[in-house]
Amino acid sequence: MRAALKFPRFVPHCAAIYILANFLLPAQAQNASTPETHGIAVVNMDRSVKPGDDFFHYANGDWIKRTEIPPDRPGVNVFTSLADLSDKRTSSLIEEAAKANAPAGSNTRKIADLYNSFMDEPGIEAKGLAPLAPHLKAIAAISDKRQLARALGESLRADVDPLNNTNFHTPNLFGLWAAPGFSDPEHYALYLLQGGLDLPNREYYLSESEHMRQIRAQYLAHISTMLKLAGFTDPDARASRILDLEHAIAEKHLSLAENDDIHKADNTWTQADFNSKAPGLDWPEYFRGAGLSGQASFIVWQPTAFIGESALVASTTLETWKDWLAFHLIDTYADALPRAFDDERYAFFGRTLTGTPQQRPRWQRGVILVNGLLGDAVGQIYARRYFSAEAKAQAQSLVANLIAAFRQRIDALSWMDPATKAEAQAKLNTLYVGIGYPETWEDYSAYEVKTGDLLGNLWRSDLFEYRRAIARVGKPVDRHEWCMTPQTVNAVNLPLQNALNFPAAILQPPFFDPQAPDAVNYGAIGAVIGHEISHTFDTEGSTFDSKGRVRNWWTPADLAHFQAATAKLAEQYDTYKPFPDVSVNGKQTLAEDIADVAGISAAYDAYHAALKASGKPAPTQDGFTGDQQFFIAFGQNWRSKEREAALRRRILTDSHAPAQYRAATVRNIDPWYTAFDVQPGEALYLAPADRVRIW
Ligand SMILES: [Zn+2]
Questions:
Q1: How many angstroms separate the alpha carbon of residue 524 from the centre of ligand 1?
Q2: pLDDT at residue 36, rounded to an integer
Q3: 19, 77 Cβ separation under 8 angstroms
Q4: CA of 384 to the centre of ligand 1 (A)
Q5: 99: helix, coil or strand?
Q6: Cα of 264 to ligand 1 centre, how many Å?
Q7: DSSP symbol at 681
Q8: Which segments of 124-219 are extended strands (E)?
Q9: pLDDT (0 to 100) of residue 23
Q10: How far is 311 from 320, CA to CA, in rounded Å?
Q11: pLDDT tens across 98-135, in order?
Q12: What distance lies between CA 150 and its chain's CA centroid?
């Protein structure tokens, strides 16, 4: 996937991803400190703060005092430090590969050739538009709507993912996703999604705000400039017709919120259904172009968009569609064209759309590109170098203890129906928790990389991924397949696979350190993994059963009990006021707050089970007991400093509470009171009856 090159993509609302990527930033290298000690970072604590008054500042106060937010960033936290470290490591792996002179056909050679082809600016400049010429010629030769349908089909790519990575955007007419079927999650099915817009989503075309109007005016100029650079006559008139067409497409699109409702997305259409339900586009010809004539059915995510877009193919002139195809082609591959194209694309998508004044250095973009196209090839080297088999085994045993803890907690629940409990246990039985790196690596042997052919390399990669996707239809699902590379600092929940991925890059201090005491690992990464596991059987997880089928397995009574029990937690978060005029919205953050309580509760049980099994007392560190280390490590997960504007925006848009209140989750956990001798009158103190216990 090469989306990262197009415009920095944010994950605005992804329930599946543990840490919202609001902090995704220009990769300006900021050295992440390597801890000399293995355990909690005492040096970051402010011991003048009482833990019972403000646990976040107690655990992180000195770090906050001495840390300055770099001028080009909205904030810094654990996540950004680890991302910087991972970027640095990845770029040196790629640069090593680029110098290695590895045998032809090997992954290392592909990394080298791809990276070098991106860095060969004189070669790219010398070729001009020639690499794109055959494709532009083919578009120019389209003489009727039937040929248009075929060309539109030929442009279909596997470039969307509505559920795991929540990517709904493709500039092609439609996008394809190969994934476990909604009704038959044992086998791969093909999903088709709306597409056709170059701007990020429909709001950019339809919003009447002054800001969006200005963006549209600049977008119109951008289309015209690109066409002019490519030698088209009459670029202004063509640009305005293209924008009109995209505006009409946008009117047919579903909004982001509607896209999220998977019950609306579960529509199986046979090939014949496309003809009868969505007339306009020559569908048999479209599917022939896409190489999908033999495919009996598809899951259509947004039927109304398919009806609308198909009708637009009939009602809009052939010339407009050809210009739209040509412009999208040039814009999509601008980074493989001479500098004038690349700069123009950045001027609009980078500067205008994201407000980022400067394009990243070319070498950094090369690293991002290689990470995107050959992510597993890089990841394999990354994992070998930075994540040992021992670390993996240790993290896996931590996960096993967490699952055992959840098992006991579910059994002990008073509010859940026995049948629902049985399904929750079944989900735990089949849950796959991927640790560090995948069980198998993507095979790139069918992807041909050539030196000095950047555009061809990008084109062949898109086709390689597309063919790989359509080749899976009907095959049994590999539930152990990963959707993140080991070098990614994040975690993901794959509901159709009933699986979680925790890449190597997040399994690092302060989250996880094989040499740190158990107390610290369980308090830090244990609580994070516990948070994710709990999502598999909470209100989010209740939509998918143990086999990944879309089926609500909670009873109405379970839901009623759950809502009553959780209302108290929402009230607790409503009391948090980061600024005098702003409160946390406890309802908005509730699902994540519940998962935080569940995560730390299960991690605490699992830690004590591990301690008991070891037969040894918990080692102290700087006088802190095992339980104290456990809770401080949890508090240090949330080490964070953020600009006021960014924090205000987060409170409006993020489904997670701000870091300082996530650290305060501890006030719901009884052993925290014992560990720090927290007494009535201290700010975080809750009477035992007011502490929220859900799982
Ligand atoms: Zn979550």
A1: 15
A2: 64
A3: no
A4: 29
A5: helix
A6: 23
A7: T
A8: 174-180, 188-194
A9: 33
A10: 14
A11: 899 999 999 999 999 999 999 999 999 999 999 999 99
A12: 32
* 20 vs 651, higher pLDDT: 651
pTM for this prediction: 0.85
Alpha helices, DSSP H only, in 448-545?
454-470, 518-521, 527-535
Q: What would the mean pLDDT of 54-81 be, rounded to a whole number? A: 93
DSSP 618: P
pLDDT at 559: 86
Kindly list the distances between the CA atom of residue 580 and the CA atoms of 64, 140, 629, in Å, as whole numbers in the listed order.
21, 61, 33
Question: How far does residue 561's CA lie from ligand 1's centre (Å)?
Answer: 21
Q: Is the Cα dihedral 189, 195, 198, 201 positive or negative?
A: negative
Residue 282 forms beta bridges with which residues?
none
The answer on pLDDT for 502 being more than 90 is yes
User: For residue 139, how far is its CA from the centre of ligand 1 (angstroms)?
Assistant: 45
Region of 436 please: left (phi>0), alpha (psi -120 to 50) or beta.
left
Q: Is the pLDDT of residue 16 over 80?
A: no
d(CA 253, CA 312): 12
Long-range contacts of 65-70 (CB under 8 A, 24+ apart): 67/641, 69/641, 69/642, 69/643, 70/28, 70/30
Which residues are 493's β-sheet partners? Answer: 500
- What's the helix, strand, coil split of the chain in %, to 5? 55, 5, 35
User: How many other C-beta atoms can be found within 10 angstroms of the C-beta atom of residue 72?
Assistant: 11
pLDDT in tens, 154-176: 999 999 999 887 789 999 999 99
**121 CA to centre of ligand 1 in angstroms:** 43
The DSSP string of 319-383 is HHHHHHHHHHHHHHTGGGS-HHHHHHHHIIIIIIHH---SPPPHHHHHHHHHHHHSHHHHHHHHH
User: What's the length of the chain?
Assistant: 695
Q: How far is the CA of 690 from the centre of ligand 1 (A)?
A: 23
Mean pLDDT, the chain, whole residue set: 91
Interstrand relation of 268-270 and 297-300 (parallel, antiparallel or unpaired): antiparallel
Q: Can you tell me the distance from the alpha carbon of 659 to that of 662, in angstroms, rounded to the nearest whole number? A: 5
pLDDT band at 25 (very low <50, low <70, confident <90, very high): very low
* Average pLDDT of the segment spanning 452-475: 97
Structure-block tokens of residue 219? 């977008």
- Among 149-163, 534-548, 658-672, the range scoring the smallest mean pLDDT is 534-548
- The DSSP secondary-structure symbol of 192 reads E
Task: Find how far residue 537's CA is from the centre of its chain.
Answer: 21
Specify whether the CB–CB gap between 187 and 296 falls below 8 A.
no
What the block records as the tokens of 111 is 């990394």
For residue 249 the two structure tokens come to 């497409």
Per DSSP, the three-state class of 502 is strand
Asked whether 544 and 550 are in contact (CB, 8 A), the reply is: yes
Distance from Cα 186 to the centre of ligand 1, integer Å:
26
Question: Which element (helix H / strand E) includes 549?
Answer: none
Is the pLDDT score of 428 beyond 70?
yes
